[in-house]
């Protein structure tokens, strides 16, 4: 996502600053401000989303939001919110949502945040634990660690082989 890319580049800049002295640069007193990057990142994403939406509107493309399903009609047809749409080509952008397991399954799960919640953080956490082994989890742990959060990455291992 755009938010991930901005945060990845933020961490990359932190790494550059960390290594400046090895290349002969003297950088004194550089500090990272989470609020600054959060505000600038959110404004950047809002601006790009507006541009994308304007481009879609200019191209006379209809965006239909809702839950859809293919029908048994002879022509390619999808039904969304009770209305049918037929076209030679149908694009379904499914999106995705992270799932927080129920407390009964994992006690304390409600105390965590999802990867989406990462972008809502108002300040850089002093310590963080990222659960998962997918690329998003690894990126988040790396970004948090590089920016100064003492980070741990937890992965599930059901069986020892």
UniProtKB/TrEMBL annotation:
Q: Where is the FAD/NAD(P)-binding domain?
A: 28-160
Q: Name one GO molecular function term.
A: glutathione-disulfide reductase (NADPH) activity
- On the tree of life, the source organism's domain of life is Eukaryota
- What's a single GO BP term from this record? cellular response to oxidative stress
Q: Which UniProt keywords apply?
A: Disulfide bond, Oxidoreductase, Redox-active center
| Pfam families (alphabetical) | Pyr_redox_2 (PF07992)
Q: Which residues form the signal peptide?
A: none
Names of the cofactor(s): FAD
Recorded hits in SUPFAM superfamilies, A to Z, give: FAD/NAD(P)-binding domain (SSF51905)
Look up the record and report any one GO term of the cellular component aspect.
Answer: mitochondrion
Similarity-based family: Belongs to the class-I pyridine nucleotide-disulfide oxidoreductase family.
Write the protein's name. Answer: GSHR protein
Q: Tell me which species this is from.
A: Nothocercus julius
């Amino acid at each position: 996502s755009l938010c991930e890319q901005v945060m990845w580049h933020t961490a990359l800049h932190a790494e550059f600053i960390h290594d400046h002295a090895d290349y002969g640069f003297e950088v004194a007193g550089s500090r990272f401000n989470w609020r600054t990057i959060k505000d600038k990142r959110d404004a950047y994403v809002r601006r790009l989303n507006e541009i994308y939406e304007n481009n879609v509107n200019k191209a006379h493309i209809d965006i239909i939001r809702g839950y859809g399903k293919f029908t048994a009609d002879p022509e390619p047809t999808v039904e969304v919110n009770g209305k049918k749409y037929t076209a030679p080509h149908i694009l379904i952008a499914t999106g995705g949502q992270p799932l927080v397991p129920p407390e009964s399954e994992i006690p304390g799960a409600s105390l965590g945040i999802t990867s989406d919640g990462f972008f809502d953080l108002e300040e850089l956490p002093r310590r963080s634990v990222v659960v998962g082994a997918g690329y998003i989890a690894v990126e988040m742990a790396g970004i948090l660690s590089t920016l100064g959060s003492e980070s741990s990455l937890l992965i599930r291992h059901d069986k020892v082989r």
